[in-house]
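Re: duplicated header lines in exported structure tokens

Our pipeline writes sequence and tokens for each protein into one text file. With two proteins the header for the second block appears twice in some exports. Here is an export where it did not happen, for reference. First protein block:
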Amino acid sequence: MKTILLTNHYTGLPRQIVSQCVPEGFQLVMLDEVTQEDLIRKIPDADYLLCSGRIRIGKEELDAANRLSMIQRTGVGLDSLDLELMQERNIPLYVNQGVNADSVAEHTILLMLGCLRRLPVIQRNLQNGIWKKQEQGIQTYELKDKRIGLVGMGNISRRAAKILNAFGAKIRYYDVRRLSPDEEAELALQYCSLPELFADSDILSLHCPLNEQTRHIVNAETIGMMRDGAVIVNTARGGLIDTRALCDALRSGKIAFAGLDVYETEPLNDPELRALDQVILTPHISGVTYDSFARMMRMAMQNIQLYDRGDLAAISHCLYTM
């Protein structure tokens, strides 16, 4: 029987969902503790690696993998994987391209609306018995006609753009690869340079990968280029934002509100950020709903089963290395 090693530890409903997705003829092994040490202990017996969460897969882990045939990512994030080494060793890596794009896009819009409506502040005031309808209401804003700047134009931001169009927002974007005129017309997008996007957005929303070029793309200098009272939303990777610079901008009022689902260090343990009133914080949950979790596990297990059969042509998801 082939072994699938899940690089995470689930209990309760998540564990039940994953267990129900395991194909016949395979056994699923989870980590007892989500540590490099436990992964290295278990990986020698793994035929397939199902990568979930942020645990690192590098040289030490791959050196211990005696039977590994293929690596399957539950989502699309790759910054915890040593892609060059996998390619050197001819270890195939598959991802579930777009599997949670709807979930993340919806959460992105949720954060935008929550920031514009100052939802945490309003709720806390009401819980404390403060009922100031007009005084609080006029400090909030509609999404309609707001200038939205999308940094990166992949599956998630394309879905977000469709939702934003329904709200009547004005959408501009930057990506290293510009879309075709037909694609821009279909999504009602306007392309602009990155400095223009920073300078002219009421809401800046991050949807790009984290690499050496994008690390701290939001920093003291680029925040200084932004409109006073702008909003920043990040559902991509925490390292895209210099947290200290963002905290300074929130305290000064340069940035009116921020909606964050990802952080430079996770789990979040930043007293300064957590103490700020004008920020919405969620625990890297934008891509995890019941629907998306069940779908990503089902698709990941199906990929492993198809690969094991040798039916590579039937695997419809993206292959990164081979």
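Second protein block, exported in the same file:
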Amino acid sequence: MFKTIKNALKTPDVRKKLLYTLLLIVIFRLGCYITVPGVDTFTLSEYMDSANNGMASLIDLISGGAFSRFSIFAMSISPYITASIVIQLLGMVIPSLERLAKEGGEEGRKKMNRYTKILTVFLALIEGLGIYLSYRSSGIFIDTGFMTGFTVVISLMAGTALLMWLGDEITNKGIGNGISIIIFIGIISGLPRAVTTIWNLIMGTGTFSTTGLLISLGIIIGALILVAAVVFVQQAERRVPVQYSKRVVGRKMVGAQNTHIPLKLVMAGVMPIIFASSFLTFPAMIIQMFIPDIANQTGFWATIYQFSIASSTSEVDLGYTIANALVYLLLIVGFTFFYTYATFNPAEVSNNIKRNGGFIPGIRAGKPTTDYLSSIISKLTWLGGLYLAIIAIIPMLVRFIPNVDLAFGGTSILIVVGVALETIQQLESQLVMRHYKGFLE
């Protein structure tokens, strides 16, 4: 990895992309400290320190602390993620959107992206209004008049729109997937807090604690094992052999060749985790919009709220966490299947192999090849989905260890490591492409 980064810094075009990406990341982090107009920062600080709000801690995790500061990036990129889920689901049930996604090519992709952005702005309006109504009675606003509410909501919407633009710029002109990079930076910004937590376990009382040291070592070793497992599984792939017979291309006879189709164990990457987290916490956001003090209430809606935020806080009962974990597992597996089959079509791959005179050894071309690939994809997706779910769920229980409140859970590590691997792979492909270009010239 370090060799790849070193080579990238030596290549002018790639270095320029890296520096541009770094500049946009700096803009993102600066925006996390720009408080929305109309907010009393002193009251806000006191309220956030004393508030018992699991939903706030979840949003704060992916926003890099922007929510606790009530900055213009307080909503982070969550409206865009929700909009992406909705558009992709609609693409499965609305024929025109399905055709646009599959047959529209580059123009179709641009239209789908445009629809996602329009829906993102609409959802940002709803979420921004909900946040304002939820915190209007908390005293963090200078006044509760119409203009203050209008300014707060517009500022939050503008922050989300700016994050969308930053994400597109990173994707198109920088290195890596822009939206994933923003989430990645937001999560790792909590690293100093994690280090402080470890230190407090060991020396929190002013004297050395052997028990705290053992717990800290256990957490560190567990995190290292988790990272190693994530890297191993993210890189794992099933290689399906494909043979091509001799054929005429133009005026030349192209000889037979052997190749393979690389099928990754986790073809969907970290997207099922992101989608499942957003989907699971959506009810809490809606409930809090209409019942601002729901965290201090009891009853049916309070139960739904506690269940929805159980994955993000240890301040709820263990029973809620177990129930949340089971639903979380089902959502992750479901979104893994959804995202895998949305990106890999066995029938289309089979037709391409047949069209180019290829075949899988021992498998007839056509439908048998499609069935064979579908069987492999199904098994890989089950394994990959369960792996993602287990990695995301097990560390949730660590929060119930006394005095342990780490900023990093299994979901965070999955996202961070997954995005890091994808970005390094894209960086390597950029270097290979430029080396080939120099050779051809």
